[in-house]
């Protein structure tokens, strides 16, 4: 762009929500209408002005004069024009491997901060390769995974790091997130991303990337290639007592561990490996504390995950799943969204032998209401609190890009986020 990006102070909008006519996009716009500070300038973007106008009518009255922005992921020129008008672009248009590549590059080139909900390792790797250097040069923060994937994981480890540093208790060693409770459903967008990844995984190079525990920890042109044994398995069945002596039973694999763990490791890399040279990270799911029963349940979960992934990559069974699973743009009723909740706990032992636990909990369906809150607060942090953010630009993570600012905003929004030493 001639003369460089437009300064943030001269932008027409603080935030543009791209994909407003989609199910989650509308939830984000609604959250902003209800919670953004007065004076926040918001635009609603999508392919169809008619559909945007219909969506706007369903939003609270405050949003009824928000401008509409027509843009299409298949039109790079429209994306360039859109990102040049705003401080932050908040996008729900996925699968990101299919629809997100041009937008992330446009944002980096325009010096526009960016947030999304991706859970796709190949897309974030593409973003690092194609957008990191230009984002750094233009002062943009490209922040992936600002929803249930992967804010609880990322901030769970970050809270431990901050508490341990404050206590001068050494650095982190084996660290494990446990999904203690989850009430909600899989989003249609997440399922659609899984369909795309299942197709991409047929390529040998993509499979190697997906299996690499440090796939997202590198810089452009420099993806680390450690052995798979350098970090815990993403599908391990684990004794809870090995995570922390206070725990009982057996822990099952957590379905999103293979993505969330890479985001947490990228945060560590972006923070100059502040979590420690012995930092190892895993994610699991609680299935009960009774030894025998929890072991059987954990084994069943492990088999179920393997069966599901295999079915997604096999044509006939995938067609059956396509009829049963939620489609993009679909979601639960407001009543169901309100009933949802989640709790994650992350345990670690430091190099001095001290034990710590962090916890994040929130009300609302994790994949919908809670996710809309998390990405909206991320967008607001980038748009309105730039002077308080860490001095990092490029392709970032929630913890590295926003750190304490995001923790504070989520607490103010009603989330529990805390870290304590265990005795």
UniProtKB/TrEMBL annotation:
InterPro entries recorded: NAD(P)-bd_dom_sf, Saccharopine_DH-like_oxidrdct, Sacchrp_dh_NADP-bd
Organism per entry: Gordonia rhizosphera NBRC 16068
Protein known as: Saccharopine dehydrogenase NADP binding domain-containing protein
Biased composition (Polar residues): 214-231
Gene Ontology terms: biological process: glycolipid biosynthetic process
Region (Disordered): 211-231, 323-350
Ranges where the Saccharopine dehydrogenase NADP binding domain occurs: 15-141
Gene Ontology CC terms: plasma membrane
UniProt xrefs under Pfam families: Sacchrp_dh_NADP
Transmembrane segments: none
Lineage: Bacteria, Bacillati, Actinomycetota, Actinomycetes, Mycobacteriales
